[in-house]
């Protein structure tokens, strides 16, 4: 065989083996990694009244603002209510509520958005209620939407003779397409000279450089420029229609993000522990003893003798037991991947609450190669 052909055949075979042995790169769309500066949601908030409740509204003696709001509303409708009548109002079918919504970017007047209605007083349930017209304001105090409609409450409940059963939350409801946009928020995408900026959702210098390289590879050198580890400057077309096409193509570019930093998330309230795949473990020895306190309370009855004119007395007696498990040292082998780390931690047999303390101690000792974040 020709030596040149033999070399080409060997090189091709080696390349095929390399393709099958190297794991495929995991790429993500650019729209999942970045957001354009200026394209953002805007929170809205408002105050209103929900009427038509089946006797589950606010107790007006404890929530005077409900009657005050109703009086003001009736006054705007041309109905005069004197102060004596206001003080004697017993409104069981009305509830004061806070109305919240999110105004999406590029929303135009006449567009419908969803709203969430939450009880502000002591109403038992908002089920079956109707929200009266409520203005929704932005952070600048301007009215951007008007909300009104029938509530949908996902919970259910019943009570009788002091017994109560409830599923989910009854004091919060939602109105789909319950608000009409009245004012648009101007969105400025471009700066002077046709310059746009996009921001990474998570700061990473390596990912920023990869995005810049991918954008310049598709649109030409100089299209993207990294300003820092989060912000990327773009040279965009001046025409509005070309700008939309440019952004659509930009969002569909596939970029392989850099490996995230090793991190362990500890939720101190629930005891949840979450760690990513970059967490590693060094050889270490751990001893942790569980401490438990058990309190038993019994009621002892002292019965007086016959014809003694005494009274029966009930006294409570409590016994307290303190128990601490043995805390023998256990050797944990080093783990180079997430599966090895989980296997080593499970060998301790500790509860999630104990693991939080153990992981903090391991981090202090330098055996845990990860950042700890407590939420």
TrEMBL record:
The keyword Transmembrane helix does not apply. It is found in: Bacterial flagellum basal body. Residues 1-27 form the signal peptide. InterPro entries: Flag_FlgI. One of its GO terms (molecular function) is structural molecule activity. The keyword Zinc does not apply. One of its GO terms (biological process) is bacterial-type flagellum-dependent cell motility. GO terms for cellular component: bacterial-type flagellum basal body, distal rod, P ring; outer membrane-bounded periplasmic space. Keywords: Bacterial flagellum, Cell projection, Cilium, Flagellum, Signal. It comes from the Bacteria. Pfam families: FlgI (PF02119). Assembles around the rod to form the L-ring and probably protects the motor/basal body from shearing forces during rotation. The basal body constitutes a major portion of the flagellar organelle and consists of four rings (L,P,S, and M) mounted on a central rod. Belongs to the FlgI family. HAMAP family: FlgI. This is Flagellar P-ring protein. It comes from Caballeronia insecticola. The lineage of its organism: Bacteria, Pseudomonadati, Pseudomonadota, Betaproteobacteria, Burkholderiales. The gene is flgI.
């Amino acid at each position: 065989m020709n030596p040149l052909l033999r070399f080409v055949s060997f090189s091709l075979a080696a390349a095929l083996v390399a393709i099958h042995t190297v794991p495929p790169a995991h790429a993500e769309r650019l729209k999942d990694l970045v957001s354009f500066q200026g394209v953002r949601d805007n929170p809205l908030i408002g105050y209103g009244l929900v009427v038509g409740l089946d006797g589950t509204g606010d107790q007006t003696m404890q929530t005077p603002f409900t009657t005050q709001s109703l009086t003001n509303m009736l006054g705007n409708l041309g109905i005069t209510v004197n102060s004596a009548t206001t003080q004697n109002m017993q409104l069981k079918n009305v509830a004061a509520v806070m109305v919240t919504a999110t105004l999406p970017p590029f929303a135009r007047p006449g567009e419908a958005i969803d709203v969430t209605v939450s009880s502000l007083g002591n109403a038992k349930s908002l089920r079956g209620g109707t929200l009266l017209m409520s203005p929704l304001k932005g952070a600048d105090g301007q009215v951007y939407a008007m909300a009104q409609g029938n509530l949908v409450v996902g919970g259910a409940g019943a009570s009788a003779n002091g017994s109560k059963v409830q599923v989910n939350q009854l004091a919060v409801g939602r109105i789909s397409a319950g608000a009409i946009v009245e004012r648009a928020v101007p969105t400025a995408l471009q700066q002077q000279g046709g310059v746009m900026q996009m921001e990474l959702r998570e700061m990473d210098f390596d990912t920023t450089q990869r995005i810049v390289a991918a954008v310049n590879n598709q649109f030409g050198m100089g299209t993207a420029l990294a300003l820092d580890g989060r912000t990327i400057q773009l040279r965009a077309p001046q025409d509005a229609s070309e700008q939309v096409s440019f952004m659509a193509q930009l969002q569909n570019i596939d970029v392989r993000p850099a490996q995230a930093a090793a991190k362990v998330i500890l939720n101190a309230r629930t005891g949840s522990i979450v760690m990513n795949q970059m967490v590693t473990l060094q050889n270490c020895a751990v001893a942790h003893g569980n401490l438990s306190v058990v309190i038993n309370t019994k009621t002892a009855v002292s019965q007086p003798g016959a014809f003694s004119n005494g009274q029966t007395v009930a006294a409570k007696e409590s016994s307290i037991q303190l128990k601490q498990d043995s805390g023998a040292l256990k050797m944990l082998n080093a783990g180079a991947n997430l599966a090895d780390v989980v296997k080593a931690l499970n060998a301790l047999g500790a509860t999630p609450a104990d693991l939080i303390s153990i992981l903090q101690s391991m981090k202090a000792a330098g055996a845990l190669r990860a950042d700890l974040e407590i939420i």
